[in-house]
Specification:
This protein is an all-beta fold and about 300 residues long. It has one helix at about 40-45, and strands spanning about 1-10, 55-60, 65-70, 80-85, 90-95, 105-110, 115-120, 125-130, 135-145, 150-155, 160-165, 170-180, 185-190, 205, 210-215, 230, 240-245, 255-260, 265, 280-285, 290-295. The chain has one helix and 21 strands.
Length: about 300
Amino acid sequence: MTTVSRVSRRGLSRLVTAAVAVALVGGTAGVAAAHTSGAQLAAAKSPSAAAPVFQVGAVTAKGDDFYVYEVDGKGGLKPREARGPWKDLSEIAQVDRDADGRHDGDYFISENGRDLKFHGLTGKDVTLVPNYGYFYHGLISPGNLGGGKESDLVALGTDRINVRITNYDGTFAGENVITGSEWGTYTEIAGRGDLTGDGKTDIVAHDRDGVLWLYKGTGDAEKPFEARTRIGGGWNKYHHLFSNGDTDGDGRSDLMAIDNDGALWLYKGTGEASAPFKAPVKIGNSGWNQYRLVF
């Protein structure tokens, strides 16, 4: 990996708020749902449960209907709950801005204009980077990469990744563009929290040959990831990977995958860098192909 540029700039002053959480906020449709599950509260209070716990969101290909799946704390998901349509949405990344392990905002790329936007406590969509979606895709917010509390932002380019260090109000404190031929081989990236047991945020990357790669986090905004290590092959049987953190309540971050038949699989985290995931377990038999976005 080679860092080609880093642009630091002063963000807006941080918001001073009461204890308000916005969970899976509907953007342009103005739909909001503030909901914290029992599993989320337990994870936040338990000393051993260091991993974040997020709901799973999904938007249908037809009608842009928006649904939420709560985790059951046992490695599965509860029945979906409708939240109303969410249109003008190309990609989305749920965000934890205060390091409490729960979702409280969203970065997303609009379909109309391809702008990078943020939706947080104000309930308004704020445009941050016009035309961002023409240059980057695979938007994720895996956690803190640069030493602060806020969950930072990562996106894939043609031969690079774009890492944005964030402020509490959703604006950016700095930018790091990391180039390398390997980044052009990936179809998607995923991750939420620590995958290797060292307390630092990690990500995984899925290449065109079906190989999954691990990028261990460093905690340094100047060089956020170590050199990649191979996890394993055969991942082309999946068309989408994502993480909502700790699904089974063991304090480790997990990975989910949707296969080409529309089934949902859970890869439970081990906390070991040499083998970060256990064997997959099917937690959804079918139907996940109806969604154009799952996050």
